[in-house]
Amino acid sequence: MQRRLVRARSGFTLIELLVVVAIIALLISILLPSLRDAREQAKVAKCLAHYRQLTTVTVQYFLDYDDHFPFVAPRQVDPTTGNISGVCSWAYGGKTTHGAPLYDLGSPFYITIEERPFNVYLMGGKLPQDIALSDGTLKRAEVAVLQCPSDHSTHQYIWGTWGSGPPIADENYSCYDDCGTSYQYNLHAMMDLTWPGDLYGPFIPPITYIDIGRELVRNVLAKQSSTYVMFMEDPMDASYGSSARAPEMGYHGRFSRYTVGFLDGHAEYKKIDTRGWCGTGWETLNKTWAHTLGTGGTGLPPIFYTLEEMNCEPPL
Questions:
Q1: Cβ pair 237, 245 in contact under 8 A
Q2: Read out DSSP for 232-243?
Q3: Disulfide check for 226: which of 54, 206, 264, 313 has CB 3.0–4.6 Å away?
């Protein structure tokens, strides 16, 4: 009589399958933040490389133009009176401003790619051209070295809210697509040195403004080039530009952590307290020089910030 052999059927039970799925889900939840952090660190590294290239161009520009920095663009100076009609922190380089209402063609804040003097240096001497399309729109040439890969909003487009509380970000544009660059130059170091009266005006004649800027540059070149922040992320610029000076989320996902480019050519990703001009390990300008020359030689602190707010020593 033949015996029928019965083989045990191989396979997973439902419980075993659920355990495996749970383990895989746990591993994914552990690894995904690390992968995100790694991707963001790669973007930080790209930003730092952009800053190093930008600050190298800055030094070359100083050599070519006797330490002058392009604080104002041609469109912002009235050729008949010499008065400044506006100042913005993106005039030095980048693509043409997008041209939405605040930046219409007649505005001093509408600055073309040709009007930004660093572009020739950044593009290797070959300046790309914007293209006018048949539907009346403008296809803007790109200046990729001034685009942060984590730039997804702009504080510049609705800058009229500055000075009245925390800055507001517009999520409809990146700062790069809005005003042409993700990185703003440090206009704040000059504002209290040059602005009479209210924060947004009136402006003073450009010769005074530009000369004070030039003296500031020469001062920090001689004494503080390794600690002077020349370029900063748009969120850091917005935090400084608001009356609240509230900490902002940096491009790379952390509050009060920003990529910055220093005047000596190096760049860092670091925590910066925007509540004061001076902080541990870095300064934006020579405080004694700012306290005296910045207020007509009175020796008083600048108009808007007390010594306690600035977290600086009083002048000698």
A1: no
A2: EEHHHHHHHHSS
A3: 264
